[in-house]
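Researcher: Let's try something more involved. This one mixes different molecule types, so please make sure each is placed in the same coordinate frame as the others.
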Amino acid sequence: MRTTDQIAAAVAADIPPGSFVNLGIGQPTMVADHLTTESGVVLHTENGMLGMGPAAEPGHEDWDLTNAGKQAVTELPGAAYFHHADSFAMMRGGHLDVCVLGAFQVSVTGDLANWHTGAPDAIPAVGGAMDLAIGAKQVFVMMTLFAKDGSPKLVEACTYPLTGLACVTRLYTDLATFEVGPDGARLLTTYGVDAAELAERLGLEL
Amino acid sequence: MRTAFLDTPDEAVADVADGSTVLIGGFGLAGMPIALIDALIRQGAGDLTIVNNNAGNGDTGLAALLAKGRVRKVICSFPRQHDSWVFDDLYRRGAIELELVPQGNLAERMRAAGAGIGAFFCPTGVGTPLAEGKETREIDGRTYVLEYPLRGDVALIGALRADRAGNLVYRKTARNFGPVMATAAATVVAEVRELVDVGGIDPEAVVTPSIFVDRVVLA
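Model: All components are placed in one shared frame. Result:
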């Protein structure tokens, strides 16, 4: 079984050198820790910046320079700022190579549910998730494969409200990495569990 | 008309009417025009529809306007945050309306309003609850949702610097919605930290040209 940090490292290893990449709020931000300068990967943050650097050191925050999670960050040489309409044109227009998102559920055909549990008392918030999901050329999801109650998060069809249809290409989890898409889920690697057992626990043909 | 330069934020928002749609710049607190919002609170306009990425943080700025009960409806992409307790409470009590819009659609709907576009087909949200009931069309094998422009009566934005012609530049990610909102409202008010003479901003570096800016106030 992989730790979150190991999942993040696996995602980073699959990002092609020179890519323009958006890392979603939460666990996906850990992918940045595993991207080397030599990779030439440029990070996009949807509030309006390319060339985002690491988090600002405590005491050196500049609150005009934040990421999508509103944390103070830094700029790298070659950075650029732009307004929101341009930032989302970079997604929708197919200019962004990869985005990495978290998820509540992913379907075997790549549908994504990551913005709303549908719980009656929940305050819905979507942010840029829907734009990213349909905009980036490749959408990688990182998550645990099973929810806390033991239910699978890779499913035949999502039961939570959808973020996007047929948009996820790869799924990185603690127990396995999958390709998902029009032909269904394909198991690429497993960690501490064998394929047959995994298929049974998921209730899916892999 | 040419940009007017006002002495106080209060003068700059004096004519905001009850029931107005107010575009408010900022992503969280970055770029939020706090002095203009505080002036709007003092001015007293109510029954407002507010367009912002969020629905207020902490107890200042937009959150303070909400707390005063001046806002009927919020149009935003991400109301729920660790410090959005003012909105959360109003929403849970049914005391405020929410129109949730994907962040890119929020920006593009204002861009369309500012550019004179009647509506546009957008791939964001297809097959999701946020596209329910909306017209769709298949274009070159892909499905799109029809989205309409989002126009403001007033835009309140924050910028770093204005020159005496009314041109604006912003600072880092505080730029966010400012340049888009500046195109999309009948009256655009910019709060700036610095005011320089004409010639003090390189014309090649202007982000928001003065034609979009009605009023500037140094705050």
